[in-house]
Amino acid sequence: xxxxxxxxxxxPSTDYxxxxxxxxxxxxxxxxxxxxxxxxxxxxxxxxxxxTVFRPEHxxxxxxxxxxxxRLVPGSxxxxxxxxxxxxxxxxxxxxxxxSSQVDKLFFGILPGYRKLHLPDFRMGTTSEVYATMxxxxxxxxxxxxxxxxxxxxxxxxxLFGFSDLIPLAAPMLRERGxxxxxxxxxxxxxxxxxxxxxxxxxFRHRLEEFMNSPRYTKQPQKxxxxxxxxxxxxxTYLMVKFPQWEDEALANKQMNNRPKDFLDQCHGAWExxxxxxxxxxxxxxHFYADLMATHLKHAVNWWHQAWNRMREGKARDNYGTxxxxxxxxxxxxxxxxxxxxxxxxxxxxxxxxxxxxxxxILMIFRGMLxxxxxxMMDGDKMCEAPPRLPSECYQTSSAADGVLEKDYILxxxxxxDPMGFALAA
Length: 426
Prior knowledge:
- The protein has 426 residues and is of the alpha+beta class.
- It is 42% helix and 10% strand.
- The chain is built from 16 helices and eleven strands.
- β3 (60-65) and β4 form a beta hairpin.
- α8 packs across α15 (324-346).
- The longest helix has 23 residues, at 324-346.
- It is globular, with a radius of gyration of 24 Å.
- Residues 1-34, 380-384 and 397-426 have low confidence and may be disordered.
């Protein structure tokens, strides 16, 4: 029976009711095995659909997109409709998401944290969740207040600049080695930032060169340039020379799920080397990376407001032919470095000269850039958009690390196992 259902799922039915599509949404479970609604919720999103209605408490659901419709109204059966039509191979390829339970969390506005660096998951699907997450990173409330105060009045209140650095700095590597699939769900209203934009890359490169040629190292023979800073410069230059996608964000985004595999593998490997550096600094009682990341974010949320102020005052620095306000933002990141060193010293992390923190910050920022080039979330240059997210309260982590709904809806076969009739049972 399973083989027959699979066979039928490949051939659209004449009335466009395509219940057999259920197989594609079941996370590889047998077609008649009980399945919770999470399978259908994430499966639909994985297939490029959008939940325009998702109200488990009322038993009402509607997902549309990619020629398919999933519909359920109270008192009815779950309906899968398929509308066949021509699709190019490139279009199909670029609608694919990376497939994993960690990626599924992003559909619910939950950013998976990298466990080897002792980072938890972070909720960021709504503005209130962003504030709560920021408060968890900075319990003084200073950063949360800055995020509120620095919102730009002409943009959506969900455009929370600087906070988006949390995505590449906290998440694990979600792209699979050997794969060119890089697309991820959008977990927040504003996801890109200085660590993904071309302007951030270009200014970072120039400021890194200035840092390495500063009197701190060139005029003090006893001062040695931190080894990993030199490695960052070497790897950055190699990627810039060999791959135009490295600094050219527009080209990387245009290629979507078709970025060169060699480019992705090189960035992936460099990310792992950077990550190993921080893992080696961790232990069960002291979490250096989490403190460094939180300290950076506390200042990063200021960049948008301060960059525009400096431009209005005529104090903006060289933008190297890129967009001026974003370029000024990366200049400000480097300006924050001394403040970050001081605060890390206050937390007991930095030796007197602060070189370890400087080295670690440079490595952390570079690591975030590498992460972004291995992933793709936004199409083109959209600043803020309403992504197809589901409420984070509908996601719950089970012991098996799979998603379940707080109310346990179960997908069952109707009428003694009739494969063409399904319903949801609580």
